[in-house]
């Protein structure tokens, strides 16, 4: 078990569990691991979201990098995919995003990206942990003229805006968007500094809500984790589409013109169908995680699209895509990776692709989503002993109950059991055609797991 890194970097309560001292160590060890094969002085980019603790963590992170001898470019508030893009664009040796994504403001986190603009693999995170706890950190101290230098480069945000103009400006100039209006919820997060610029430059009529970050209102009843306000706004203002980003801007969920939510599975169905029709879906394959809805699998099967399932986490989706030459993948939560553009989930990119398809096809987004039937899905957390959460598949009674349920569904339902990566929980997810039925079955199975693994 890893001590610091979880399924998506390090994420803890800022200045309590994620202390400046810990951050300093993570930075110093990370700079060493990610640049030890370079012959030159390493350059590392740092971006952050709008949390009140962001500048505190940034200062500690910067100190750790400079102490090792790395130079730092501070990008300020910028979406995670913006950091990934700029890292690759300017050939930095590595980068860090300071964000706790969709979590509430008191949390913060650290995500490392490689020089290719991709989240670093588990093996490198493990190596960083080893260095942190090895007693080697004092040896990794630059002195005299080897100490690193920090530089404020918030101006590079405009390069990220240009990335969207470069890829979409011509398309949108040639599409009829006169009667199209989109509502955008920036979650008082990282997209609040850039979304309005992008949509204005591309000439897309838009309303922006939850776009006044104050350090503590990020994800507060807004954004992709709280869609109710956006749903109401879309209907009341007769918008054609609603878009919700999360705190760090790598996710995008949507709302159709009727105020109904379109999750990542629905978005991936629409985009994969479009790309396939243009012969641009590599190997006619879509990559998603085991958490994706059964409806997405059935849509893929019906439309002759190969469906690849990975374990949960967008990094595993990307690893599969890179290993096999695929260009579209993502998660139900709204992480969608369009590898022809950027090697990470990008909420703004995903929303622009969706809008392009709507305008090009000349139909409503609800009509576009008719290609996929989303099955009801219930997720129940079973509270278990921390040292037993990985033993659910060893208990004969639990195994028998799961097998019985799967036989009952006979292809029109699914049972997925998954231990939490960070908490003493086993997550019980059941899909099927009847909401009440699967809810009762999920609750019963969760109770059984709690009894057997307490």
Q: Fraction of residues in helices? A: 25-40%
In terms of DSSP E residues, the strand content is 15-25%
Q: What is the subunit organization of this protein?
A: single chain
For CATH, the homologous superfamily of the largest domain is named as: Alpha-D-Glucose-1,6-Bisphosphate, subunit A, domain 3
What is the global morphology? globular
What's the CATH architecture of the largest domain? 3-Layer(aba) Sandwich
CATH classification class of the largest domain: Alpha Beta
Fill in the CATH topology of the largest domain: Alpha-D-Glucose-1,6-Bisphosphate, Chain A, domain 3
Give the helix/strand layout.
Elements: E1 10-13, H1 20-35, E2 43-48, H2 54-68, E3 71-77, H3 80-89, E4 94-98, E5 107-113, H4 122-132, E6 150-152, H5 157-173, E7 181-185, H6 195-201, E8 205-209, H7 228-236, E9 241-245, E10 252-255, E11 261-262, H8 264-277, E12 285-289, H9 294-302, E13 306-310, H10 314-324, E14 328-330, E15 336-338, H11 347-361, H12 365-368, E16 377-383, H13 396-409, E17 414-419, E18 425-431, H14 435-452
Parallel strand pairs: 2-3, 2-4, 3-6, 7-8, 7-9, 12-13, 12-14
Antiparallel strand pairs: 1-5, 4-5, 9-10, 10-11, 14-15, 16-18, 17-18
